[in-house]
C-alpha cells in the first residue's frame, strides 16, 4: 500500500474534540486526530448516516438505556467494555459505533442500544468492510468510511 494520504470532504461539522488530521499509512491510522465516519448501505436504515466522534469517557445514550433496562451499572459496564482511549461515534438519531474491548469487535448499535452489526478488528477506527449482522439485523451489510480532511 502506498503511504499517500487520502483526501475526503468532511460531511458534518464536529466539535473541536479532535482537531488534527488522520494520517493513514500502510501500517496504522493515527488517533492524533479524528473526524467523522459515514455508515452507508445498511439494511438497518437507522444506522446509516454521518457519525461524529465523541469523547471515549462519555457514555452513549443508547448504551445507557440498555444498561438501565438490564439493571446493569452503566458506568461500570462502559468502563468494562470501552477502552477509554478510542473515540466512539454518534449520529444525530443517537445510533453509535464503538469498539468493545471485551470481544475485540467494533459494534454498530441502533438508537435503542441494540447491536446490529459487528466486525472483529482491533484498529483504532472501524474498518470499511467485513461487518456481520447480528441476529435479526437486515441486509445488506454496511460499509464504513472515515471522513478525512
TrEMBL record:
Q: Which UniProt keywords apply?
A: Signal
- Give the signal peptide range: 1-28
Q: Which domain of life is it from?
A: Eukaryota
Protein name (record): OCRE domain-containing protein
Amino acid at each position: 500500500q502506498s503511504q499517500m494520504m487520502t483526501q475526503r470532504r468532511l460531511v458534518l461539522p464536529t466539535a473541536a474534540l479532535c482537531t488534527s488530521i488522520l494520517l493513514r499509512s500502510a501500517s496504522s491510522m493515527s488517533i492524533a486526530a479524528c473526524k467523522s465516519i459515514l455508515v452507508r448501505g445498511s439494511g438497518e436504515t437507522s444506522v446509516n448516516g454521518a457519525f461524529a466522534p465523541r469523547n471515549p469517557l462519555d457514555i452513549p445514550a443508547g448504551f445507557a438505556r440498555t444498561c438501565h433496562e438490564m439493571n446493569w451499572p452503566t458506568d461500570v459496564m462502559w468502563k468494562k467494555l470501552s477502552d477509554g482511549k478510542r473515540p466512539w461515534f454518534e449520529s444525530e438519531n443517537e445510533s453509535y459505533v464503538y469498539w468493545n474491548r471485551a470481544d475485540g469487535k467494533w459494534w454498530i448499535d441502533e438508537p435503542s442500544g441494540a447491536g446490529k452489526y459487528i466486525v472483529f478488528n482491533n484498529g483504532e477506527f472501524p474498518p470499511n468492510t467485513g461487518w456481520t449482522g447480528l441476529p435479526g439485523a437486515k441486509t445488506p451489510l454496511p460499509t464504513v468510511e472515515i471522513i478525512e480532511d
